[in-house]
Structure formats: C-alpha cells, structure tokens
Design brief:
By secondary structure, the protein is an alpha/beta fold. It is built from 16 helices and twelve strands. It has a seven-stranded mixed beta sheet, with helices on both faces. Strands 1-2-4-3-5 form a five-stranded mixed beta sheet, with helices on both faces. The structure holds NADPH dihydro-nicotinamide-adenine-dinucleotide phosphate (NDP) and 2-oxoglutaric acid. Belongs to the Glu/Leu/Phe/Val dehydrogenases family.
Length: 447
C-alpha cells in the first residue's frame, strides 16, 4: 500500500516538480484515496487518480491594461479546467500577486472533490491572475477585469465553465467581468456566480461560505453533544469568508476574539460583536482599509503586527484567510490552549503537519473541501435559479445550504468513521468526493 502511494506521488512529483502547493493537495488525497482504490475492484487498475491530477485544460493568457497614469501594465491570466466528469467546470477566480499555476492547480484539484461533495452537478476549475487589487482605483479594477474577460470569455459559458469569486474577487469584480462577457457575447446568461441581486444573483451567496463553515463546525460539535454557545472563537482573515463566519458564530451565541489580514491580527478580549463586525465590513468592503484601523475605533482591542491569531486561547478555530496559514507549531499552541474544533473556511489553510497534530489529538477537524463547500454549493443554487429564471427567498436558500452542509457531514461520517468512533473528516471527504467523480469517469470511458 505504502509502495503504491509513493510510486504514484513520485510520478506526480516528476511531472509537477515546481508546484509545491499542488503536490501538497495531491498528497493528502492520495494517502486516503489510494488505499480505498486498492480495496475496490471497480477502481483498481484504471489509472483514475493519475487522470484526475492532470488538468483537462490549463489556459494561460496575457492581460494588458492601462493604469490611471496612462502606463501599460501586463499581468498573467489563467483558467485551470480540472475535471468535467460530473458537470461544467466550476470554481472561483483569484486576483493576488502570489497566483501561479501551482496555486491554481491545487485549488482546482480541491474544487473537484468539494463540488462532488455538494451533490450538485458541478465539475472543478479555478482561475485568476497575479494582478494585485490592493491600492488600485475602481477604474483600474474595471479596466483590468474587462481586459481579463476579453480573453477568458472564449473558454467559459453557462454549460462549459462558470467562474465565481475567491481572494481579491468579490461583487465589484464579478460585476465588471459579467459586464464585459455580456457585451462580447451579446447574451445574458448565468456564466458567473456571485452576481448582484438585481442582475441574476442569489440571496445568501455572499454569506454562504462563512455560514457553511460554521454550520459544518456546529454539526461536528453536535457529534459530541456540544455547540457554539458561549465558546471562544478565533478567526483569521477579514474578507468575505471571515466576515460571515464571524456573523454566524455570533448568531449561534459564541464570542469571537480575533480577525486578521496579511498585516497582522486584532485581538478584542471583549469580543467582536455585531456592531464591531459592521465596522469591519465597512472598513474592508467599502473603504478597503487595513485591519489595524479597528483598534483606532475600538482602543480596548490590540493589534498584533505580522502575526497570525493562533496563539489566542479558544475552543474553536476558523482559519478563513489563505493556504498554509496554520502550521504545526500553531496547531500545537491551539491544542495546548484547549482548542477542540477546527473548521477550515479557507482552502488548505492547515499544513500537512498541522493536520497530523489535530488528528493525533483526536479533535474535531474539518478540511476546507468539506467545511467551506457552502460557497460553491450556493453558487450551484444560483445556477439553478438562473436556469429556472426564478429566485428563491433568503430562507429557502439558507435551508438548502444547511441541508447540503448536513449531507456533506453525513458523507464524511460514512467514509471517514474509524473503528474507535473517531471521524477522520479528511479521509471521509476525500473518498466521498472521489467516488462520484470516479464513477462518472468510468461510465464515460477513456476521454
Ligand atoms: N469566497 C468564497 O466563496 C470562497 C472562498 N474560499 C477560500 O477562503 C479564503 C478567503 O477567501 P475570501 O474571503 O473570499 O477572500 P477575500 O479576498 O475576501 O479575503 C481574504 C482575506 O485573507 C487575507 N489574506 C489573503 N492572503 C493572505 C496571506 N498571504 N496572508 C495572510 N492573510 C491573507 C486577506 O488579507 P489582505 O487583505 O491583507 O490580503 C483578507 O483578509 C481563501 O482561501 C479562499 O480560497 C473557499 C471557498 C469559497
Ligand atoms: O462559488 C464558486 O463557484 C467558487 C467558490 C470557490 O472558489 C471555492 O469553493 O473555493
């Protein structure tokens, strides 16, 4: 068994030697899925995982645009179309200076499993650019988005590939991207999700990833007869996912102590209540400011520069910023401080060593592909509403989101429950995600 995993990983390493994040994501899946493949005749000898780690298509393109000084700028754009066995490619666009093929392939690979877990008919993809939105004017953002879509449009479509937001891409960017797609194609279709409410968006989509992450954590806690009430929660990030993870934690009666951005974190021992959260939302979504401005408004809180918040004592940790933001030392600190539950809002925020520490301590740990699947699931619901040309109410969408998160939790138990009763959510999510995609690939033959 060990030999099969090593041989497989060596082959993937040879082909993708300069892609550490992609290799990290593949390794985590291989370690849990290869044993399952070897135990099941229908999957053995079909090279399914070898096919799944090779993107069906990886598009890279030049994005030229003019900045406010009249200078011509050039960025690189990408779309990784990873797997379309169970539906059109689906996954976000990330605008961040660190974006490269490795990051987008890891995200697209994770997306295949995540989308399968939602039970909705969506394949996996991801895209973006090394464009840095920080400090850019609205007009620069618009010109960049229009230039990006002037190439991307030929590779996507409502039945082909449906992008959405991710880091650096929110409602504003989706609007500009949609506007250019509509102009070039002369059609009004559900080609993107995360759209505004007056032009095809779904209620609850902005909230869905953060809410879903908390719904999943609550389900995990329920297996121990526990819940969010009166728990101390530490959150990283202050963007879309973090904001709504904080909101839902507060609604469930928890006390949220931290939020962060790439400059550091704020620690508010009195708790970030709903008024303080409204301030953060205005600061981040409208003023596009930095998290340290929180302590100017709320001087009882402190700002810790250049650090992540994992040293703050808590029962529940919600990493909602970025990949590999929580390492082994952080995991041990969280465990020593009494943390009992980690639910990933971000994609792959915990390193492999951190996950091993959580598993060894047998605490509740949910990998992002299960716990943050509420975002893409609600994108799937947006696609359904677009096809129906009908909008569901806030309550209807929220109930469907809860049901989907509940089903994902059940799938993780089905494939991840161990003999001693401990639930390995990593194993559960990987195998459950794999089975549906693998069955579809087998049915469709070698294509
Ligand atoms: N939006 C969605 O629906 C979904 C998002 N996700 C994942 O959730 C995570 C957050 O995404 P989202 O909230 O949408 O993105 P946003 O752009 O809205 O927010 C990102 C947040 O993370 C921080 N951050 C980004 N990069 C780093 C870094 N290198 N170090 C420290 N902090 C960093 C940002 O700080 P700063 O402003 O300083 O850069 C910001 O606070 C990502 O991993 C994304 O892939 C997963 C599922 C769905
Ligand atoms: O809503 C979507 O399609 C994308 C969400 C996403 O990028 C993710 O799940 O990581």
């Amino acid at each position: 068994m060990k030999h099969n995993i090593e041989a497989f990983l060596n082959q993937v390493k040879q082909r993708n030697s300069h892609e550490p994040e992609f290799l990290q994501a593949v390794e985590e899946v291989a370690e849990t899925v290869i044993p399952y493949i070897l135990e099941h005749d229908i999957y053995r000898g079909k090279n399914i995982l070898t096919r799944m780690v090779e993107p069906e298509r990886l598009i890279s393109f030049r994005v030229s645009w003019v900045d406010d000084q009249g200078k011509i700028q050039v960025n690189r754009g990408y779309r990784v179309q990873m797997n379309s066995a169970i539906g059109p490619y689906k996954g976000g666009l990330r605008f961040h200076p660190t974006v490269n093929a490795s990051i987008l392939k890891f995200l697209a690979f994770e997306q295949v499993f995540k989308n399968s877990l939602t039970t909705l008919p969506m394949g996996g993809g991801k895209g973006g650019s090394d464009f840095d939105p920080k400090g850019k004017s609205d007009n620069e953002i618009m010109r960049f988005c229009h230039a990006f879509m002037s190439e991307l449009f030929r590779h996507i479509g409502p039945n082909t590939d449906v992008p959405a937001g991710d880091i650096g891409v929110g409602g504003r960017e989706i609007g500009f991207l949609f506007g250019m797609y509509k102009k070039i194609k002369n059609e009004f279709t559900g080609v993107l999700t995360g759209k505004g409410m007056s032009w095809g968006g779904s209620l609850i989509r902005p909230e869905a990833t953060g809410y879903g992450t908390v719904y999943f954590a609550e389900k995990m806690l329920n297996t121990k007869g526990d819940d969010f009430k009166d728990k101390n929660v530490v959150v990283s990030g202050s963007g879309n996912v973090a904001q709504y993870a904080v909101e839902k934690s507060l609604q469930l009666g928890a006390k949220v102590l931290t939020m962060s951005d790439s400059s550091g974190y704020i620690y508010d021992a009195d708790g970030i209540d709903s008024d303080k959260l409204a301030f953060v939302m205005e600061l981040k979504n409208v003023k596009r400011g930095r998290i340290h401005e929180y302590v100017v408004k709320y001087p009882n809180a402190e700002f810790v520069e250049g650090k992540t918040p994992w040293g703050v004592s808590c029962e529940i940790a919600l990493p909602c910023a970025t990949q590999n933001e929580l390492n082994e030392a952080d995991a041990n600190t969280l465990l020593n401080n009494g943390c009992i539950c980690v639910s990933e809002g971000a994609n792959m925020p915990s390193t492999k060593e951190a996950i091993t520490a959580f598993h060894r301590a047998k605490i509740l740990f949910a990998p992002g592909k299960a716990s943050n699947a509420g975002g893409v699931a609600t994108s799937g619901l947006e696609m359904t509403q677009n096809s129906l040309r009908f909008n569901w109410t806030r309550e209807e969408v929220d109930n469907k989101l809860k049901e989907i998160m509940c089903n994902i939790h059940d799938s993780c138990i089905k494939y991840g429950k161990e003999e001693d009763g401990y639930i390995d959510y990593v194993k559960g999510a990987n195998i459950a995600g794999f089975v549906k995609v693998a069955d579809a690939m087998l049915a469709q033959g070698v294509v």
